[in-house]
């Protein structure tokens, strides 16, 4: 059975520490976002932690701090949500809160239809 997802790639606002970003997202933004999450079956935040590059030895900051996943059980709700996000500004309450957290100009969205194969053994 396919799972329909929206991926949101987001960077913390300049000057905000990684710890403060994660704390604010989990404890302030998530509860607010839940008010507007009808039809979402799962809401995951995947915080990215840069790792050392074997050849260069560097560990540089990544373009995004988090990949947020919004999962949907049905295609119609997923398509409707994609259309809404792509063509409308979010409610004022969300926009104001995002300004406290994200570098909004760098936010990006992608869609995914995920199909999984059961592995033998």
Overall description:
The chain is an alpha+beta fold and 121 residues long. The chain has one domain (3-50, 62-114): Alpha-Beta Plaits (2-Layer Sandwich). It is 31% helix and 23% strand. The protein contains three helices and four strands; from the N terminus they run βαββααβ. The chain has a four-stranded antiparallel β-sheet with strand order 2-3-1-4, with helices on one face. It is globular, with a radius of gyration of 16 Å. The two termini are 21 Å apart.
> What shape does the CA trace take?
globular
Report strand %.
15-25%
Helix content: 25-40%
Give the CATH class. Answer: Alpha Beta
Q: Please identify the oligomeric state.
A: single chain
Rg to the nearest angstrom? 16 Å
Query: What is the strand tally?
Result: 4
* Proper CATH architecture: 2-Layer Sandwich
**Span between termini:** 21 Å
What keywords describe this structure?
alpha+beta; Alpha-Beta Plaits; globular
List the helices and strands and how they pair.
Blueprint (H helix, E strand, L loop, with lengths): L2 E8 L7 H17 L7 E6 L18 E7 L2 H13 L4 H8 L8 E7 L7
Antiparallel strand pairs: 1-3, 1-4, 2-3
Entry summary:
This protein is of the alpha+beta class and 121 residues long.
């Amino acid at each position: 059975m396919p799972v329909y997802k929206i991926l949101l790639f987001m960077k913390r606002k300049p000057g905000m520490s990684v710890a403060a970003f994660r704390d604010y997202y989990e404890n302030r933004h998530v509860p607010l976002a839940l008010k507007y999450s009808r039809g979402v079956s799962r809401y995951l935040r995947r915080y990215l932690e840069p790792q050392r590059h074997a050849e260069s030895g560097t560990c540089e900051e990544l373009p995004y701090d988090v990949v947020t996943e919004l999962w949907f059980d049905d295609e119609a709700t997923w398509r409707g949500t994609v259309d809404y996000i792509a063509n409308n500004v979010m409610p004022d309450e969300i926009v104001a809160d995002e300004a406290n957290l994200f570098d909004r100009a760098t936010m990006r969205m992608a869609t995914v239809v995920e199909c999984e194969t059961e592995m033998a053994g």
